[in-house]
Amino acid sequence: MKINKKLLNALITFAIVIVAFILCEAALEGWFGKGFALKRADKGLLVPICVYIVLAVSLNLIVGISGELSLGHAGFMSIGAFSGVVVATWLEKALLTIDAAGKTVPFFSDTAILVIAIIVAGAIAAVAGVIIGIPALRLRGDYLAIVLLAFGEIIRNVMNCVLVWVEGSTLQFALKINEGSAAAVPGGAQMVINGAQGTNNKVMSVAFNNERFIVGFVLVIFTLFVVLNLINSRSGRAIMAIRDNRIAAESVGLNVMKYKMMAFVIGAALAGMAGCLYGLNMKTVTAVDFDYNMSIEILVIVVLGGIGSIRGSVIAAVLLKVLPEKLRFLNDYRMFAYAVVLIVVMLATNSPILKNLWALLMRIRPLRVAAEWLQALPGRIKAALPWNKKNGKAGEAQ
Amino acid sequence: MISLLSTLLNGLSLGSVYAIIALGYTMVYGIAKMLNFAHGDVIMVGAYISFVAIFYWGLPPILGFLLAMVVCTVLGIVIESLAYKPLRQATSLAVLITAIGVSYLLQNSAQLIWGANPKAFPAMFSLPDASLFGGSVTISNNTISLLNDQLKISGNMILTILACVAIMVVLTLFINKTKMGKAMRCVSEDKGAAELMGVNVNLTISLTFAIGSALAAVAGVLLCASYPSLQPTTGAMPGIKAFTAAVFGGIGSIPGAMIGGILLGIIEKLGQTYVSDQLGDAFAFAVLIIVLLVKPTGLMGKKVHEKV
Fold first, then answer.
1. Of residues A69, A153, A351, nearest to B86 (C-beta)
2. Taking the model in full, what pTM does it have?
3. Whose CA is closest to B42, among B121, B110, B118?
């Protein structure tokens, strides 16, 4: 069978994620012995890593594939997180059943609640994506970026005022738009979302939970499946054509708004799903957690992983979540080091001066010989592998 | 009526600070075509320098103020030459991420040097206590009270508005009347053609960063005089707001930045007073979105015709 190069690329990405997941599960089970057992802090990172992979891949769809600079991705995450907490609490409090022992228990298990909440949160974020996308995507370049940033900040501001509490078996909503305004909340009510203090998530257990990690893994696979399929489809090619030359794409009859919206809304829905998982994995999240710094953090992952490269986003998301954790020994200098690394990487990959330096070094004969040898190495290894030789002959025979 | 007047004055003072910061954004955008996300943090550095000079070294406020301007000017030139100059030919996204890196670097350096705890910014100056016009105007506690104590104007507010007006006049004269100003206009119009005509483009861009950073220092001191809490993230939110103001007025346009800044400040204060004290920011951003949807290049932005 002739394997298409794009399909092979996608399969490699899936394989990397699946192998990483199996290794994590094996380490959790303690198969590698004590030396490789995951510490508590490491376990706590697993679900956030899944969340950030989904966020980075979905933002890459908007920034890399569709070519629209978005500085408001955290807004969709925020919508997903808050609606997810509300849905999960409602399922826990209102949808009850009586078990065999005669006790009243929630109809769904914790994991089922998590999955339903993620689906609903994705749908709500998609609706928000449509509402924001229709006006915003008419703008281009820096103006689009600033409008999306503004939308993200509006979402943060509004979420800061939302009050949700449990009354009996129903949920009550209110907006607290003035600091001094009388609270409609009855005293002693159990708050689900308490304005600026954020969510009060009593549904899920707070400690690391392997089922939640599995849900996160499935979400990552789902995201990769959706995004990679979209990129390799007719619509995906249309989206990339519009990115490369909007006027040319328009003149061959592509509906620019439709394809831009498609990428934007799918990105928003995936971000909402990731936000829901993030919100339900934490004891509490506040609206301020999802400010523009969060959007920028995701954008940095996308840019460092390589614009338009889905596999790059996955790897960069893992590295940029794990690295700061491993750099804890630097204490106060940790974020400082992060900033320096960020600037140096951007300069090293984009500056013509450093490229010239490279060209200068290549003039020195031993260095050039060494570099050429290194460049040729993968090809030589490939050629030397026994199965490659066999395949080559079989191909010739056909 | 008096409450409206007082809200408008508050908004005018806040808007003046936004306008001064927005000038830095818009000048850099007009000439280097980049979003300088680190601009907000230059404000914070300026405020810290003047804080240290006045509070620890005991310099008179005016000297602290000048020192902050000098340090920020140098900082702006250094940032431009080390981080942005090598990326002249790079994609705008690469430059944006580098600017974000510089912003993190400044914030974390400030945190390492001065700590994360908010510092109380000292008063820059004080008006003498007095009672004028037979008691109808009284000055006490650095605040002028008018109309039987109903309207209060703080000294900082007056200083901010005066500084903004002065900066606008001087900058407009500089841009329109001097040779360097002409060079700046040329570079923002067409970098390549300006270079062919003998304009030193690199020097002009450095100069723009220098002026923008000096203005940021002024804004930092004025901001902290009105809202006297100083911490490493002080500059971030005003920076974003001023950026919004620059886009609001049409990014790249200097009068646009002034008008955008002042309007944004007034809208924010009006929203806070009459709609919701929690949603003031949301109100300002919503107006920005509406303006951009009606006029996609901002209030005074130039319409660029697309070439096919």
1. A351
2. 0.84
3. B110
